[in-house]
Design a protein that fits this description.
432 residues, binds flavin-adenine dinucleotide, 19% strand, Fumarate Reductase Iron-sulfur Protein, Chain B, domain 2, five-stranded parallel beta sheet, single chain
Amino acid sequence: MGEGLTLTLATEEAARCLLCFDAPCSQACPAGTDPGSFIRKLHFRNVTGAIRTIKKNNPFGWTCGVVCPTARLCELACSRTAIDKPIQIGKIQRFLVEHGWAVGFSPIKKAEIKKDKVAIIGSGPAGLTCARELALNGYDVTVFEKKEKAGGNLRYGIPTFRLSEKGLDREIEEITSLGVTVKTETPIEGKDGLTKLKEEGFKAVFLSPGLWSPVRLGIEGSDLNGVLSATDFLGAMRTHEASDVENLVRDKVVAVIGGGSVAMDAAMGAKKLGAKDVYVLYRRSYTEMPAEEKEKIQALNDGIHFFILTQPVKYSGKGSLESIVCRRTRLGDPDDSGRRRPEEIQGSEFEMPFDVAIEALATEPDTGLRELADLTWDNKTITVSDANLQTSLPWVYAGGDIVRGPALVVEAVADGKKAAEAIAQHLEGKGE
Ligand SMILES: Cc1cc2nc3c(=O)[nH]c(=O)nc-3n(C[C@H](O)[C@H](O)[C@H](O)COP(=O)(O)OP(=O)(O)OC[C@H]3O[C@@H](n4cnc5c(N)ncnc54)[C@H](O)[C@@H]3O)c2cc1C
Ligand code: SF4
């Protein structure tokens, strides 16, 4: 932490703010963090008020300040752009939360817990946000988490070189200190998973288990040593297996397959662990890569090589990966995603030596989740009411990636807030 703005720089930046009426930046934040208000407060030197606004609206205000793609959210909407460049909203937000920590200012106070028991499944940003909002409203909240530590993708996905463990721990501690119980290594699974919670007296459930089952390429040689998913690679970097993955990639030639943000994290992670060379293999063109522009530039600056219009078709090796056979692609007509479809060029095969292949294609729900209850699914996501995130079972709500598909931290926070409000209404007999 700490490589962001100083108080002087943050105040100078806030002085550039046009103090817009109906601030477009605030309207562009999915979680309602309200940058228009906290920047206005900082502008008028009300530093604690600014910190309070962030923390009241977003329990992951620091995390979002660090990892939000602000260039396509609040900063894209910023009116100051018409004059010169947008206000650095993400950096100001991060600075303010860190400043609050540095001076020992905690704006959120614990409420008396005296209402019904609510269970949350999954301790990612959606689950923990919902937990905090309900605890502040007096509900007795327990978060059940499958993994060893809380945080979801903030801990086991986004690497520490982008999001420090110290800051994440601090934001999670702020939530648990409000009386939220987090039970780690306690998965809620199986056909009787939800029934048991009901029997234990939980009156409502918020399902926020994310998407943790990696989609694999499934080509010949996928079982060779050295071929793994980005979920496993990035997750292992945060556990006792960290030295195993380091040994796996150190001084090796690594291929990362995919063009999204996760691929960029895996590629940069492998490079930071000492890989000799890292190649991103992607089947469409550079402009079609789903990763943020900033991430692609960062990866290129880190010395990662991009092999675009390239489709791996076979892993080769004796026991361990030795090479990847690829085929060149060309772009055809747009597909359902609006991006031009990659078409393999027959006869264009070429083979490149690689020691490690990390597949960063996509993730989907764990298969066990479908067993949990008779919920309505839309292919790979749980169907909920747009109005209140209620599932087909009236006492079960869902949000975050399990509803949206792969999305953003700030959107998970938004869902956690919305579900908490709906659950409270439901339990107070005001909702459906
Ligand atoms: C590598 C990577 C980089 C990313 N980078 C960014 C970024 O820079 N900016 C950004 O905004 N977003 C980023 N994202 C996306 C963001 O992290 C997710 O959108 C967000 O974490 C989703 O939150 P969630 O609460 O829905 O689920 P998750 O964060 O996935 O958390 C779900 C939790 O539920 C637990 N769980 C699952 N099943 C069970 C069960 N049966 N019982 C109990 N617990 C269970 C899981 O172990 C997990 O801890 C990134 C994602 C990845 C993978
Ligand atoms: S849109 Fe930009 S200029 Fe307007 S209030 Fe927000 S940060 Fe300030």
